[in-house]
Design brief:
alpha/beta; Rossmann fold; Arc Repressor Mutant, subunit A; Trna Endonuclease, Chain: A, domain 1; 3 domains; 5-stranded mixed β-sheet; 20 helices; 42% helix; 19% strand; elongated; disordered N terminus
C-alpha cells in the first residue's frame, strides 16, 4: 500500500505498510532526495554549540516539510507567520503559539521584544533534555514596516541565544530577497551570526523519476524529461499530477483549464520570492524573449531600468533563486557576463500559459504534434542538459576533473554547451531533442564541421576538440557519424 504524506508536500517520503507475521503494520520510510540537507541538519542538531540556521528557497520546494519530517514535530517551540497580516495579528499568533506550547499564562505580547522575551522564558523552563529546537516558519511574513522584528531577533540571539549550547534556532522563508537582505547579509546586529544556511534546490531528473515511480506513475523517461521541461523539479507541482492521466492531459488540467490547479501560480511565485516583484518581472520577461540571454547593458537598454547597485541586487537575487544563470561566452572576459532565463516553469509560462491561458482546455494535447512544440522542446532540452552537466561529465568519464562550462555564438555559428577540461581537451556539445535515434546526414555533418572549424579559427585554439552528441535516444550510426567522439543520451541525464 502506498500512501502520500501531505499531498501538497509529499516529495521526500513514501510510506510502505508491510504486514509481518503478526497483525501489526510496520512503517518503513524511504527518503527521496535531500540527503545532504538531512545530513547537514543532523550534524547541527548533534553539535555541542548554539546554532542559528536559515532554510530558504522558492515557494513549493518543500522547506517546511523537510524540517517537520526531520524533527517529527519535536520542537520546543514552533510558529508560522501569517500571510499579509498586520503586526498585531502576527503578535497574537505568536502569543497563541506560546500558550499552546508551554506558556498557558503568557499574555499576548505588545511588541516583538516582549514576544521573544516570552520565548526565552519558555525555553528556560523547558524540561526537555538535549537540544531545544525553535522553528520559525515563514519569518518574512511576520515582518511589517517599523515593527522592529529583526531588532528583536538580534537581541534574542546576541544577548542570550548565542550562549546556549542546547539551542537550535531555525528560521525559514520563501521570500528569498528578504531573507538574504535582512538575515544573511544583515549589516547590523545579525552580521555573521547565522551559523549555517540551507538553500533548498528543486529536484533533479533522477529525483523526479524516483518520486513519480513511488507515487505509482508509469511514465517513460521521455515523458518525465518533458514534464521537467515544463514545470522543473518542483515537488509540489509533481504532487498535483494524476497518475491516471497522460502527461499532456495533466498539463492541460493544471495549466490550461479554467480554475486549474496552478492558476495564478506565476504571480504568487514571484510575489513570494521578492518584496517588490515588478523590476524582477520586467527583467525576466525581457530575458524570455531571447533564448541565449543578454548582457547587463542589453538588459538596461531593453528594460529601461537604471544601472547601479539596485540592478546588481536584482540579478544576484534571480541567480540565487535559480531563475536565471549567468555565464561567460567562451573566450570572453569576466565583465562580459550573459544572463539567461533558465527556470523551466517561467519559460513555459511566457511561451504558452500567458499567451494562450485557458482559452482551450485541450491546448497542450493538440500542441504536442506541432512544429511549435518541437521548437520549444529543442530549446528546453538544451537547458535540461546544461542544468545536468554533472551527469554529462560522468558519462564522459571526467567527473571530478576541473572543468568549466560555457556557451558560444558568432555571426555564423552557435554552440550551446562547451566543456573546457583540465586535460587540455574541449568538448563541443551538440544537443538534439528527437523522437528516435538521430541520423547525421551528409549536409548536417558539413554543418558540424564548419561549426567546429569556425570555433577553432575565431578563437585561435590549439586544444583538442571532441564533438559530443547529446540526443534523446542516441545516434543511428552511418558513414557520417564518425565525426562524433562521444555520445550522451537522455537516459544518461537520469544518473544519480
Amino acid at each position: 500500500m502506498f500512501i502520500l504524506l501531505n499531498r501538497a508536500e509529499s516529495q521526500y517520503f513514501s510510506l510502505h505498510l508491510q504486514a509481518k507475521n503478526t497483525d501489526k503494520l510496520f512503517i518503513a520510510m524511504k527518503i527521496i532526495g535531500r540527503y545532504s540537507e538531512m545530513e547537514q541538519i543532523r550534524r547541527l542538531y548533534e553539535a555541542h554549540s548554539p546554532e542559528f540556521v536559515v532554510v530558504y528557497g522558492r515557494r513549493r520546494v518543500g522547506k517546511t516539510f523537510l524540517i517537520n519530517q526531520f524533527f517529527k514535530d519535536n520542537f520546543t517551540f514552533k510558529v508560522t507567520g501569517l500571510a499579509k497580516k498586520d503586526k498585531n495579528t502576527q503578535l497574537r499568533n505568536f502569543g497563541e503559539a506560546l500558550k499552546r506550547q508551554g506558556s498557558p499564562l503568557c499574555p499576548i505580547p505588545k511588541n516583538w521584544n516582549e514576544a521573544f522575551d516570552s520565548l526565552r522564558t519558555l525555553i528556560e523552563n523547558s524540561g526537555k533534555i538535549g537540544k531545544k529546537v525553535v522553528f520559525i516558519d515563514e519569518l518574512p511574513w511576520m515582518y511589517t514596516p517599523r515593527s522592529e522584528l529583526v531588532t528583536a531577533i538580534e537581541h534574542f540571539w546576541n544577548d542570550w541565544g548565542c550562549t546556549r549550547e542546547d539551542l537550535m534556532l531555525i528560521v525559514c522563508g520563501s521570500a528569498t530577497s528578504w531573507i538574504t537582505k535582512n538575515i544573511l547579509r544583515n549589516k547590523g546586529g545579525l552580521h555573521n551570526r547565522v551559523t549555517s544556511k540551507i538553500y533548498l534546490h528543486q529536484f533533479n531528473l533522477a529525483e523526479c523519476r524516483d518520486y513519480l515511480i513511488e507515487a505509482g506513475f508509469r511514465y517513460e523517461e521521455k515523458d518525465i524529461a518533458e514534464c521537467y521541461m515544463i514545470m522543473g523539479g518542483i515537488p509540489y507541482y509533481l504532487s498535483l499530477l494524476d497518475k491516471g492521466l497522460s502527461l499532456a492531459q495533466n498539463v492541460d488540467r493544471m495549466f490550461f483549464q479554467r480554475n486549474g490547479k496552478l492558476d495564478g501560480e506565476f504571480q504568487n511565485l514571484y510575489a513570494s520570492l521578492f518584496d517588490n516583484s515588478e523590476p524582477y518581472l520586467k527583467i525576466i520577461e525581457t530575458l524570455s524573449k531571447r533564448n541565449y540571454g543578454m548582457t547587463r547593458n542589453e538588459i538596461i537598454e531593453q528594460t529601461g531600468l537604471p544601472d547601479g547597485g539596485g540592478l546588481s541586487t536584482i540579478l544576484s537575487d534571480l541567480d540565487s533563486c535559480d531563475i536565471i544563470r549567468k555565464y561567460r561566452a567562451f573566450g570572453k572576459k569576466e565583465n562580459d557576463t550573459i544572463y539567461q532565463l533558465t527556470d523551466f516553469y517561467t519559460l513555459f509560462y511566457y511561451k504558452f500559459i500567458k499567451k494562450y491561458g485557458t482559452s482551450d482546455k485541450d491546448f497542450w494535447a493538440y500542441q504536442t504534434a506541432t512544429p511549435t512544440h518541437s521548437t520549444w522542446a529543442g530549446i528546453a532540452f538544451e537547458q535540461l542538459c546544461i542544468q545536468h552537466h554533472l551527469q554529462i561529465e560522468k558519462k564522459l568519464g571526467i567527473f571530478g576533473m576541473l572543468t568549466e562550462t560555457f556557451s558560444w555564438r558568432s555571426k555564423d555559428a552557435q554552440i550551446d554547451m562547451i566543456i573546457k577540461r583540465a586535460d587540455k581537451v574541449i568538448n563541443i556539445c551538440e544537443i538534439k531533442w528527437w523522437d528516435g535515434p538521430f541520423t547525421i546526414s551528409r549536409k548536417y555533418r558539413e554543418t558540424l564541421e564548419n561549426k567546429i572549424e569556425s570555433f577553432r579559427s575565431q578563437l585561435k585554439l590549439r586544444r583538442t576538440l571532441h564533438l559530443v552528441m547529446i540526443t534523446t535516444f542516441g545516434l543511428r550510426h552511418n558513414e557520417y557519424s564518425s565525426i562524433v567522439q562521444n555520445e550522451v543520451t537522455m537516459h544518461d541525464l537520469f544518473e544519480k
